[in-house]
Amino acid sequence: MRALWVLASVGLIFSLPVRAGDEESGKPMPAVWKEQRLDFSYMGRTARYSCEGLRDKMRSLLLDLGARRDLKISVLGCNESAPLLRGYVGPRLSIVFSSPVLPDAAVQPLHLGDLSPVYARYESFTLTSDAFRNYGIGDCDLVEEFSRQILPKLAARDVKQDITCVPYQASGSRFFVRGEILRAAAAGPKVATGPRAATSPRAATSP
């Protein structure tokens, strides 16, 4: 067993035990909510989004990959009439979100409440054309840019990508991204309570 150091929001450092193999087994393990502030640039060739549409797609992608629901996304440089104008590079997004990461004692909180502890586990994810999740072939460029700009900032592992985006047409385009992502667990490990938790059977002796 080893210990991971967790930096709490009140500025105190404490350790939580992590059993060897927890990362591989999918068991909940100690993690922290890490806030990130990112800018995302998009100039699509397979699909054009309204400013709100691009924001909503990004929100959906982040939530699918374990971001906390209090994320904030602002659209910068939005000009609905400009996509066909020469030199227009498309809207940019300013994104503030928190997602689970493994603790790192060298990382300092951005503010009070950042790096708050949470139990999390690695779970599989897939990004591909899926009508039920509102992902279509036209989202190819967006998924490609998300995989390049955002995914490396998340606690993802074993990521495999197969992305081919044909400019200005959906025919022939495809995207398939899969791997494992660290997501907050519904509940942490169960902790024993009561007299039996305080005294082990071997330690109890009769007078």
Map the helices and strands.
Elements: E1 2-7, E2 13-18, H1 22-25, E3 29-41, H2 51-64, E4 72-76, E5 92-101, E6 116-128, H3 140-149, E7 156-164, E8 174-184, H4 195-198
Antiparallel strand pairs: 1-2, 3-5, 3-6, 4-5, 6-8, 7-8
Task: Characterise this structure.
The protein has helices at residues 22-25, 51-64, 140-149, 195-198; strands at residues 2-7, 13-18, 29-41, 72-76, 92-101, 116-128, 156-164, 174-184. The strands form 2 sheets. A 6-stranded antiparallel β-sheet has the order 4-5-3-6-8-7. The protein has a two-stranded antiparallel sheet with strand order 1-2. 15% of the residues lie in helices and 35% in strands. Residues 1-18 and 196-207 have low confidence and may be disordered. The chain is an alpha+beta fold. The longest helix has 14 residues, at 51-64. It has one domain (2-185). It is built from 4 helices and 8 strands. It is globular and about 50 Å long.
Keywords:
alpha+beta, six-stranded antiparallel sheet, two-stranded antiparallel sheet, 15% helix, 35% strand, globular, disordered N terminus
Can you describe this structure in just a few lines?
The chain is an alpha+beta fold and about 210 residues long.
What is the chain-wise order of helices and strands? Answer: EEHEHEEEHEEH
Continuous helix count? 4
Q: How would the global form be characterised? A: globular
Q: How many strand segments?
A: 8
Q: pLDDT below 50 for ≥5 consecutive residues: which ranges?
A: 1-18, 196-207
Radius of gyration, whole Å: 22 Å
Strand content: 35-45%
Distance between the termini: 35 Å
Tally of distinct domains:
1
* Overall mean confidence score, pLDDT: 81
Q: Portion of residues in helices?
A: 10-25%
By helix and strand content, what is the structural category?
alpha+beta
* Biggest pleated sheet: 6 strands, antiparallel
User: Biggest sheet: strands side by side, in what order?
Assistant: 4-5-3-6-8-7
